[in-house]
Amino acid sequence: MRTLEWLVHWRVALRCNHLTYQVSIRPFAQLRTLRSRPNGGRHSSFTGNSAGCILALIVLLAHGLAASAQPAQPEARPGKLAPKPLYRDPIHDGAADPVVVWNRLERKWFMFYTNRRANATNDPGVAWVHGTHIGIAESSDDGATWRYRGTARIGYGQTNYTYWAPEVIEHEGTYHMFLTVVPGIFTNWNAPRDIVHLTSTNLLDWKFESVLKLASDRVIDACVLRLPDGTWRMWYNNERDRKSIYYADSHDLFTWTDRGKAIGDQRCEGPKVFHWKGRYWMIVDNWRGLGVYRSDDLLTWTRQPEPLLQQPGNGPDDGVIGQHPDVVVSDERAFLFYFTHPGRRGEDARKDGYEQRRSSIQVVELEFKDGWLTCDRDKPTYIELKPPMHVHRAVFTPAQREVKWTLAELDPALPTDWSGYSFLALEFRASSPAATEVRVFTTDGIRKVRLHPLAGAWTRAALPLRFFAQRDRQGHDLAALGNKPHGAYWLNLTGAVGPLTNVQAIGFAMDAPIGTQTFELRVASLHKESPGDAVLGPKPLVDEFGQWIHDDWPGKARSLEDLKSAWETDRERLGTGKEFGYCNFGGYAAPKARATGFFRVEQIDGRWWFVDPDGHLFFSVGVNVITPWVGTPVAGREDLFAALPPPELRKALGQQPRPGRAPDASFYTWNLSRRFGDAWLAQWIELTLDRLDAWGFNTIGNWSDRRLWDAKRKPYVVMLRGWGIETGYLGLPDVFAPEFTNRVEEAAREQCAPRKDDPWLLGYFVANEPPWPGRELDIVEAILAGPDAPIQRALKQFLADGDSPERRREFVYAAVEQFLEVVNGAIRRHDPNHLNLGLRFGSHVPDRMLRAARTFDVFSLNCYDYKPDPAMLDRVYRVTGRPILIGEFHFGVPGRGLAPGLRQTANQSERGAAYQYYVENAAAHPAVIGAHWFQWADQPATGRFDGENYNIGFVDVTDLPYAELVEAAKVTHNRLFDVHAGSKPPTTRRPIVN
Q: How much is the pTM?
């Protein structure tokens, strides 16, 4: 807290004897002029003789000074106070058209400006604005104070050439200037003007590159911005077309293609385009202050109702309109630089003397209010321009999927031996939420992890180097082992690990980019302690409906009224599902097999089927995770959300957050409550079951809400728990512990006995995606590294007769067989009526484990691919002899802040095509008896408990269905009986991936 800085521009106004007295306090108590304003009129010098007024003013001032030290006063923004005026040129006193750029060689800020010859009072007409050089001022205190440096050495033109309105940008170590040039000194405005391209490495000496071929011979005031796809766009003033703003595009800053008019609703010049607060902005000089436009796509511009700097200010040299702007966005703050002609006011405004010609540079901080820009030029401006970080930009296309930089290119200080460090810190911004691989290149191989970013936001990620160096052992299933949440992003581990002692480069890769995607990196550094993970901005990321703020798509809700209308239409369009020919339990009405009152499996004419309780053949098509709660962690991340759901929503579900998980909130639930009101839960259950009927689904998949089971309208599956998997060695319990059998028996009794007579229960899953296949040696290492336990003693005794990788695998296989013997036996004792659906393996399974799976009624596996590999299915069936249920698969599209999931398609229509291709090709295999989609609703854009944020729902966060996916599912389900029976071939139309 800086008390003296608080006092800057602290104003006291006192009405006394019809006079208003004002005083401005400067740092170090430097009093400026005490002025009076008779009857609210123009300022005049203070000559009042009222001692009482003066005394009252002193008392009020003293009281204000005392009050300023109290905590109740607003705290100043970071930075130093910028003086008014900010800068005046000491040579000609005509500084105008400023542009501010960071000089990374000298580590200071440079201001380039048109150096108008205001003191050339004998020059006729407008000759004084011609023959100008480009002035340079520099600042070493973050933009607060500036001193004259000299003029730019322009390598183009003759001694009397005129240089106006420089635009300066930096790209990959080279500075580019786009400069307006007039070939001589003219007394009127009727002269040709070109925009010239120059380059520099030091910001002082400028090499001529070309004269740009643009819309006419009268073009001025270039502004250049890099587009999200890595190309460049220039806006400029075409004076031949009523001073409209035109634009041109370039892929390399050297070759430009003119695109025509950008805006033409008003005459203006000096465009400045920048990105701030999630929008693109254009500020122009229309000689009545500064006009403002905003855009989402840099093509369509909407004009702001009120201009900026139209009303004169009260500060020195600021009592006129502001002109020709520049904007610097620094650390999410935006500073507007502009110039004024201080003498152009009052009765002297139309004179043409030194006072009217001279100009000053000013600065004010922009504010964002009600969706538009505003500023208060009389408010003290505390400025702090932070040096822009050099941004390395990776561009991914279908033809270019990897970019890498050597350590020297990223930072010459980075060492090659990383063994003494624990974290690699990256500051990055990704255009796509799809996974980006972080690749560390060493002399003996590549180490990598998949980083899942929050799209469009600058993020700091402190990546634990242990994930690159060794395989992680923390987790009981594939998701827990592979997914590592970090709040601002999440990681998926690849297993490509090894020593980090000879690092040469860092790279980034995207597997299947859709169109052109970018990954920008501005920091790569090593740390022994974590610098912390953080979303740096812009924030918030999610609106009140749970939608991603920084993306747009057809059907995105803009208001609750939008949603209510869409919900009404959705309900009206919902069908009945009678076209699928299902019977009561969801089986096919004909043909019919033996009825037992419960679900069973049977091979008929060489093809396996479920048989429902009434004896109808049944092919299971279901959806997992049908639940009204789709939570995202919020603690410590509250600033990511524009609003948070009310906490009482969870109470309606009668549930508490799962142990070990951070408190979460569900925007999906919030939208359900908006849709249905107080009875939202009951109405959601009814609508969900109606949707399953209408869309042709006959099974409530894994991890779904129990209230759907209890409705007795749809067969369901149950995931059993309690075997000790969650606390086991990579999910393997201590099967040699005496208490293991008792624990399993009690868990089976508690979960299975109450359901043994329920005909709607399809069957039980024993576990989900155990990571045992391929991790046998890690399991053994975890057992040996753990505390003394029966399984450790059994392992050591087993290895005493020979220790080899194969022997270690043998021990794990034997332990798995022991686990299944105990668990399967307990389930059968407490429920002899229902099917054992197996372990839902999620990876390649060795034959030894497949043979152990013969004790299941059905072999289940989660298969994420564009279709199940027929050779893989053949092998599983050959070894197990059991029918196969696919427990999980899905497809997604990157966008809306959501990652595509484990398999991607190019768009929502292709997601529907992918569903049909997968399910029909699975059903064509004679051993496959079902396929369950994962999951009902999209995951939250800000990630679920383990970070996953996939576009994998049949419905989105606002509870609206993806029409393309729904329609494809209905077509598929109408064909499934014939496809599985072998009377129709599956579709051969593969989905488009990118």
A: 0.74
